[in-house]
Amino acid sequence: MFEKKIKCDKIYNMYNLFLDFKQKTDQFFLTSLPKINNEQKLNFKKEFKINFYPQDSSISISFSTKYFPKPIKLSFIQFILKNLLSNLINNETLIADIIIAIDEIVSNILEHSYKKTGNEEICFEFIFTQKKMIMHIKDFGPFGHLMDISKVSGNKSKNTFMKKKRGMGVYMVKKIMDQVEYEVIPDKYNLLTIIKNFDSSSLLL
Question: What architecture is the 2-66+93-202 domain classified under in CATH?
Answer without folding.
Answer: 2-Layer Sandwich (3.30)
